[in-house]
Structures
1.
Amino acid sequence: MSAVSSDLRLGDDSGYEGDGPLLELDAVSKHFAQESGLFAGLQFEPDQFPPISMDPGSVQAVDDVSLEIQPGETLGLVGESGCGKSTLGRTILRLLEPTEGDIYFKGRNLADLGGEELRQMRSDMQMIFQDPQSSLDPRMKVGQIIEEPMRAHDMLDDEGREARAKELLEKVGLDPRHYNRHPHAFSGGQRQRINLARALSVDPDFVVCDEPVSALDVSIQAQVMNTMDELQEEFGLTYLFIAHDLSVIRYVSDRVAVMYLGHIVEVAEKEELFENPQHPYTKALLESIPVPDPRESGVRGVLEGEVPSPQDPPSGCRFRTRCPRLIAPEAYDLTDEEWAHTRAFMRAVKRRTFEAMPADEIRREFFGGRPPGGEAGEIVAEAIDRIATDRDDAAVDEDDWDEASSLLLESFAERSICARERPAYQLESTLGSGEHFAACHLHR
Amino acid sequence: MSSEPLLRVENLKTQFFTEAGTVRAVDGISFEVREGEIVGLVGESGAGKSVASMSLLRLVEDPGEIVAGEITYKGETIFGLEEGPNGELRERDDVLSNEEIRTRIRGNEIAVIFQDPMESLNPVFTVGGQLREFIELNRGLGEDEAKAEAIDMLREVGIPDPEQRYEEYPHQFSGGMRQRVLIAMALACEPSLIIADEPTTALDVTVEGQILDLVDELQAKYGTSFIWVTHDLGVVAEICDRVNVMYLGEIVEQAAVDDLFYDTKHPYTDALLDSMPRPDRTVDDLEPIEGVMPEAIDPPSGCRFHPRCPHAREVCKRVHPEPKIVAGDGEPHRAACVKHDAFDVGYDESPPLEDRGPTPSGEDSADTDSESGLAPNPTADDGGERRE
């Protein structure tokens, strides 16, 4: 870090000289109250007494996340929309108060810091937002925008700030003569550069980049990412790079963390993660992404269904409701094939992706005519009976579907180890020397 | 290949007459769509791909206007001009009237799927109701029949429990599910052509995969042709049969999908491929395209890509290339670049451009007004070179 210290580094004390990670998250959770207001959490339930119940339900946006970020590295954080990656980014900066857990920055627990100390610490941690349009005040000039954080942290005098702003403009690839322009005169890519200059103005060590290039065209994306890369070297920055686009993550990251529904499911060095993914979710993500190569006829649509609600997330492994590798419950003696059939049938019933039909047809369609035997077989037979059109009593209705679905889920899905224990395993990396974390019971 | 294509577009020009001047959003593009194929229309924002696709249905709004060209669909003229007695251009007699376009073509023959499913569905009506109304109006079915058909379509596009979800409102659907509803709506009248305008851009990759699968499946079943408008070359590689690459209102390259990726003929397409990060391999250094796309209001002279083109020579400033066949045994491979022999305008002898000056205008996408006072901006020179 010190080797490249240019005149843009403000003072020497800002660098981090410790040996530990720059940032460490220890079991951080962030839960949001579902509603706010006087009657929040009150539920009206007419069929019980009293007909009102308190349900302080919360959305578990980030749940028990532990991570380390080493000085000078770029950690990519990838996941689908709603998985909690932005919330995590904001919680790290303490723009949101973590519900539980500790965040250590340069070895100091951020929770212990308050008032002035926290404010000081904040100058070392900056953020870049996704939307280059709305993150810049349209009424301020570019110069003011870049100087504002310095003013807030009482850095330099007026002249010094102006000189630094101009220098930063040049560093991020803009013309210093644009100092007096308004943001609207700039294109999306250029605005993102202004954002960069603003974040760097207070000489931070750590920058959270929340989807910084998602709103940009491909050719502009590459320009901005390259600039970020150069700045990282020059300023000795550490990035947490949040994105949903795996190709972007692969380009910018040193290590990658994959997030699903508030949990980190896999962390590994970039090459290891992309070439040797160990979590079924990571695999599915990698398989789904369209490859710009027409000869690469990929599998896609490998994941069924949708992300469950974070209000009531699945127990154990949160991915288990969609996981193509959900582990068979030990209570039953099923062959792999029988389990695959049963699993597919269970999910089809739960999602109701087929119409009620005669029992024989169900057996043929889902079990190739050979449903499993033993205890598991009895449960399957009972479920089939509920939704078969040729059974004795009345036609199949909603309740029958619900019963069949809960019978199957309780007998199979809930008894799987995936539902009972939250997975967390450290594996050996096959590529590179780093650690490889995978939250999947297949590695038990 | 001998048979008449489903849709033929010739020299289409759509312009917007604004106070700042005439924006030549689409400037003389020609392409065709054959039965049962998926044709890609690719480009960055501001390239004119959406305007082009909306022109096909004559859905261009003021101050925009189709000013030239011919659009033929199944032998019928959607748009065409002829010279009147006084030398002025007027619409030909055989052009379909607005009424015919509205009742016969839109929805029934050519349907559209838009990018943002939330904006294409009315939030105060149930999803089923909207789909039913659409079927009733376009196919003249009674209410009950239309409802049954609507439920069938919802099931067809993979919406679980369609009877139940028929009664729900758009906000109760996830993004992927809403996009499925739009696909159901587009398919409901069994059109021969569907224009899909960035239909998966707003979706997560796993959902995008599901939708692409669905499109593949439905296409095999109904034989519908698609025009797939996108900026994502990954999606293009996945599903398109043939591709048109647009830059600043023009088609610069037109080829079968495999040729486009493996035998790229236009420097812009090349540069675009080089600037993309890859999901399937680690790229150490991306080569961004220099500069930004200029405004369509004042396009560069000659080849419109020349200010950013690494192969540009002096001749590129003067000669404006129209796409010509440059390769291809079966499927013609067209490119609009004078470096190919087919053009024969002296590219090889022409001196390289010396003053690789600034880009013509400081802006990339069409989302900002160009400020004439704005000095050219050296944004792009990530290589370190800066203009004084």
2.
Amino acid sequence: MIFAPSDLDREGPPEKRRAEPDAAPQGSAPGPADANGQAPAPSEQPQPTIGEPAHGVLPGQAPEAAPAPGRAPAVHVSRPSSRCVIAAGLRLPQARAGGLYRRENAAHLGAVAARELLAQSGVPAGALHEVLVGCVGQPHDQANVGRVLALRAGVPERVPARTLGRNCASGMDAVTTACTLIEAGRGDLFLCVGVEVMSQYPLTFGPGMTSLFERLSRARSPLERLAALASFRPSFLKPRVALMEGLTDPVTGLIMGRTAELLARDFGISREASDRFACESHLRAAKARDSGRLAREIVPHLPLGAKDGQAALVHDDGIRDGQSMESLAKLKPYFEKPDGIVTVGNSCGITDGATALLVASAERAADLGLEPLAEIRSWAWAGLDPARMGLGPVFAGALALEQAGLTLAEMAVVELNEAFAAQVLACQAAFASDRFAAEHLGRATRVGELDPARLNPNGGAIALGHPVGASGARLLLTAAHELAVRGERFGLATLCIGGGQGGAVVLERRQS
Amino acid sequence: MKERFQSLMPKDAPPPGACVRIERPEPGLARLVLDPPHRKLAVLDVALMQDLERALDALSGDSGLVALVITGREPTSFAAGADIDALTSIDDAAFALELGRYGQGVFEKLARLKAFKVAAVGGPVPGGAFELALACDRIVLADHPSTKIGLPEVLLGILPGWGGSQRLPRRIGVPAALEAILAGRLFDARRALRLGLVDRLTWPEYLLRVASDIAMGRLRAPRYDRGAWKWLVDKNPLARALIRRKVLQEVRAKTRGHYPAPLEVIPLILAAPSTPLEVGLEHEAAALSRLMVSPVCKNLVSIFRLSEDAKRLGKLPGGGEAPKLVRVGVVGAGVMGAGIATVAAQKGLWTRLSDVDRAPLDRALHAHRANVKKDAARRRLAPHEIDAALDRLDAGVGLAGLSGSEIVIEAVAERLEVKLAVFGELARRLSPRAILATNTSSLSVDALAERLPHPERVVGMHFFNPVPQMPLVEVVRGARTSDEVVHAVARLALSLGKTPVITRDTAGFVVNRLLGPYLDEAARLFDAGVEVQEVDRVAKDFGLPMGPLELLDEVGLDIAAHAAESLQRAFGERMASSELLGRMLAAGLKGKKGGAGFYLHGEKQRVVNPDLARLRSAAGNVRHEFPEAAIFDHLLMAMLNEAALALEERVVAGPRELDLATVFGMGFPPFHGGLLRWADTLGPREVLGRILRLSASPAILSRPGGVARFKPAPLLRRVAEASGKFHAVEAEAPPR
């Protein structure tokens, strides 16, 4: 109560000193996660915990984190493991680009998800071997956004971090990379994040304006400067939209929507079928939201730039309640007029979002006392014609199933990313086609029927949105939760990738 | 005079000549190094000043001398300023004047030395240390986080009296000098350069080289120059007259006439640009001598010492640093919890706030972002610093996310069973080494610790509302709380920018316990017929930042009633609270948060609540003439008698700690030096007399409660009868 006598406020403003992100000795961070069950007192020399990474620590750089005297820091090699698990995971609500997250940035959004996951799982950040982050459009002011994100999430400086790019599958790539490292014995605990803030994709000047600026900066005399300015043409002001250019395949020149149109023609997919699929996606998502199913995997987020009094976003905001065939039918084709079938209504939305997963060896997860969401049974990446990139799930899915020794019919849940309704339907057709299998997959028979009831049972990207770098991780999270909800064993998460690739992961949930 | 100087000599002072070293790194260049063996950080005490004078005398005879660099023993260790303790021990104005002139004279010798003089300084450069640098031709400053430079003398009730009030305005102009000297702020390196306090920044590693190069003319370093502004403002009588009026008005409003130092220093600064230096220095010395012997100065220095001593609580009793806590959990996102969380996050701690609902968490996040935005504008934070402050706070529903915390501070509802449930759950989830702290103001730490597996990890950490502004934290030691935990929490409080005071686990701890009778007396005075403003005015005239009835409104009448209840439960009749509060609450008056209490709190202004009269007891509506002195005694003697009881019970270690708590926790006027220091000035005998008079007064004897609060405390009787002082009561080891 009462106030500080202002005259005694002799400190002035607190100095601009930033706390060291890992100023606490790792060993002193108390938590049930300390694998050996005894967290040393903060004043004691920290005892390296099992699997504590020691690489990257320079003597004197982080004195508290230095190993006990006489104990040389050893490069960590853990037991190779063939069993990788998603030990824990969560995501933030996904928001339509230009909307609630328009003041967010990738590092912050990803860091929020990462911090929340570390807090809720009780895993001390210092126990991580690396932070792997999938992000497609890295902000120009956050180079290696994965590292920026990790530090902003409070991960100690000595834990390395990198950003992975495999276009729409970047978040899934982070997870399979973690598995590769675990299998190679290069670590057993990784934080994998998929994040995308498409709201912040920039507009840029074209080459005309760029060279004008170059000439200006090089001009030595007023005359040269004038000459440079005289080269200006109004067309220089036309911005280049990173979002549109990023969604266009530079090899084939096709924007993603047109690759879906190509599949629609190849497989004879109608506008009506597409719209029906899109409509169903919204209805399923709304139902999953209302039943609390989606809340299992989401933590609320109060976005940066939220107005005073605004509440945290609790759910994905792309879900349209009462989406109807009539309203979808009114939309004009967006990419190919007048005969195209792909509209903004039966495509995924441009979205911002972040998903964080802890990927660990099964043994490490058990040591940490975490009950895994699911085990990663197998995974595969495949390449195909960039113009028909939408079929990626068929190529990769077939490979992953083969590796797992399982069939499509055994998959209780299939999370197949809904880039475009036409593209999902094309995949469904291709999975079920003997001819496609023979011509493209080198298989005698088709991969199998994709039961619509098991396909994206809680809706997909058409309703929930497709924050490109995050979606791969989001599919894994959603599939794993769905296995738990249904008490089922096997699931498939797969997606198509701009540039002509597919990625697929087979998940297995062991009954406890 | 020389003999009298000797009386100020530190006991452990080395033989003459040992404090200042002359080095000759190259022909023509001399380097003066302040390196007193008896101090960790050099202090401009008599020993050092005399050695400095000797060194300057020696150099003045050196015809080959071209340049001089004056520096500390390390680039980031120069000097801590004048020997405050010695200066404020002086009670004789004539001697004070002599001493001021002596310091000025030594610095004048430096200024007149025939050589190009460069001060190479860094780390803390406050007060006299900066004045020493100001006497040089150029100042080079080490760019380091520990660097803090400025003239904070006014905060101690004196003024920069070794040339500072004259040389700083000449260097940086009148407006900037006024701001720097009146606020007493210490500036970081970059701001010091921007304001012109120094001429050049460099890294500590290059400090000596750059300073030598500038001194020898190998490196150009122009002196800070304000250009035309100097003529438009500093040398312009009209502009100065305007500034004078505005500044005096502001200072008078702020100090209410209680602080003489700003009023002494303002004319000195204003006159500086148009006065010859010798004349200005003479005025400066005279003003300094007047201030140095004033009680205000002694009281402010005493408070400064108390707060410096409190910084040692971050260390363990056996020596060594207490554990540093950087992962902080806060449970309960109400006003207190949210306040604690935002302060912790802004101070760079990884903070997680938890509540059972999402809505208060969102409110807390909004408030945090607004705080960071304000701070960013005020301190010109860079984008990455803003990001860091935002990133440090996250929020989640439930206790699950707190398992990695090194300390969790609970600020949930003030109900024992709620708090027990939270601590029980936390004890299961957290490492057994994590600290459980409670922000309770009315429950016992021991009661909360009782059933937990590690009671030694349970401690009280009592913040005051509003948390970002209130500088005190009561660290409450339960019967079983370990030393390590107490001091780790004190260290945490210090890292939050707060001043800790260790208290025993008794009702109200120290601040609320002393406020209890004081606030209740205020309510009773109103009930007995004194006007609201009259009660508050008496307190404010004394120097308190707000009146007791204003304070009750601010705190909230419901909260105050709750606190009073718990005090009454613990201490009985002497804490019995006036029925007025109950009547007000029944009438729906809750204070500022509800818009109405003793005052009506409008958007812009505040007026006395006119409906209040009908809530008075019958006696109060008959107009009573209460002399001001009676009002004053009711308020202050009630508090003081309780303080004597608390001191005897060792709620805090001793009288110094109690004074610190009153100044930082309730805004007790710093110029009085704290409650007990003020009582010592008044004389415990006089205090006893006044309390006895009150205890015998019919108004008090006849009232239905709170009579015993004027029964003189045994300690007060003993001190008064022995003609002693409260401050002579020995401090005991931190109480348990």
